[in-house]
Design a protein that fits this description.
The chain has about 100 residues and is an all-alpha fold. The protein contains six helices and no strands. The longest helix has 17 residues, at about 65-85. Helices cover about 80% and strands about 0% of the residues. This is Tetratricopeptide repeat protein. Pfam families: TPR_1, TPR_8. Keywords: Repeat, TPR repeat.
Length: about 100
């Protein structure tokens, strides 16, 4: 789906966590981390347990040079992945945290 499709979904359902999250991913892929962060913020506001949104917001913050915020978000994503039993994503996020700290 394109950003326009997510915009349309959000006009119909302004609480669509999936639309905010996926539009954030689309913005990030288009190298627009500021817009991505805004959408990840909205997705997290709607669903505080959305580990992927924390992880991707952390990556977007890292691309902007905000290492401190990036690590905080990646650590929150790792905690949520662990709580949710998602071992693979937990381990991947732990690896990312180590890379960001270097």
């Amino acid at each position: 789906m394109a950003i326009a499709d997510f915009n349309q979904t959000l006009r119909i359902d302004p609480q669509s966590v999936d639309a905010y999250y996926n539009r954030g991913l689309a913005y990030f892929k288009q190298r627009n981390p500021q817009a991505a962060i805004k959408d990840f913020n909205q997705a997290i506001r709607i669903n505080r347990n959305l580990a992927d949104a924390y992880g991707n917001r952390g990556l977007a913050q890292y691309t902007l040079g905000d290492q401190t915020s990036a690590i905080a978000d990646l650590e929150q994503a790792a905690r949520l992945f662990r709580q949710q039993g998602n071992t693979q994503s937990y381990q991947q996020t732990q690896t990312l945290i180590q890379q960001v700290r270097q």
